[in-house]
Write a structure and sequence with these properties.
By secondary structure, the chain is α/β, with parallel strands linked by helices. The chain has a single domain, classed as Glutaredoxin. Helices cover 33% and strands 17% of the residues. It is built from 5 helices and 8 strands, in the order H-H-E-E-E-E-H-E-H-E-E-E-H. It has a 6-stranded mixed β-sheet, with helices on both faces. The longest helix is centred in the N-terminal third of the chain and has 17 residues. The chain is globular, with a radius of gyration of 20 Å. The chain starts with a helix and ends with a helix.
Length: 166
């Protein structure tokens, strides 16, 4: 009995000292998506169109952006520039970026359905790799959710929680 208790105590101490692999994994919202979390950027200023801007996340969650009017909600076939995405976030929209190399047409159509059914959502292919190699990145001003695959329910929920169109 004492030997068994000693083994249990040693295992508990080693686990506590080394940490659990679960603690190192990002918290999951669903099978495909992490929990939405604060992004590294939020507020920014208007800058002249064409000004180079470096963002702290991909896709961006805020920061400096062009002073010209931002894009309207809807489905885009060509990538929106990051400064234009940030302009959309500034007015309370949600931007859904996807990696066209990681999603099939069916998955893109599912995400387009979410954009079409929620005023204030923009769907755009992402030109640059997203953080963590994500297939989908959903952003609102100061918030980001990364997904390994298309998860329309997670995107719809994020939009419901974070849409604030002015």
């Amino acid at each position: 009995m004492r030997a068994h208790l000693a083994v249990v105590m040693v295992v508990a101490l080693v686990t506590a000292a080394c940490g659990s692999s679960e603690a190192e994994q990002p918290q999951r919202y669903s099978d495909f998506c992490e929990q939405a979390e604060p992004g590294p950027e939020s507020e920014g200023v208007h800058v002249p169109a064409g000004t180079p801007i470096d963002y702290l996340s991909s896709p961006p969650t805020g920061g400096d952006h062009y002073a010209d009017p931002g894009p309207k909600p809807g489905v885009y076939e060509q990538p929106l520039s990051e400064p234009h995405q940030v302009a959309a976030l500034e007015v309370g929209y949600v931007v859904v970026n996807y990696d066209p190399d990681q999603l099939d047409d069916r998955e893109v159509a599912q995400l387009a359905g979410v954009a079409d059914s929620n005023f204030g959502v923009l769907l755009t292919p992402q030109a640059a790799p997203m953080d963590g190699g994500a297939a989908v990145g959903v952003t609102a001003q100061g918030r980001i959710q990364l997904c390994d695959r298309a998860d329309p329910a997670a995107v719809d929920s994020f939009a419901a929680d974070h849409l604030r169109p002015n």
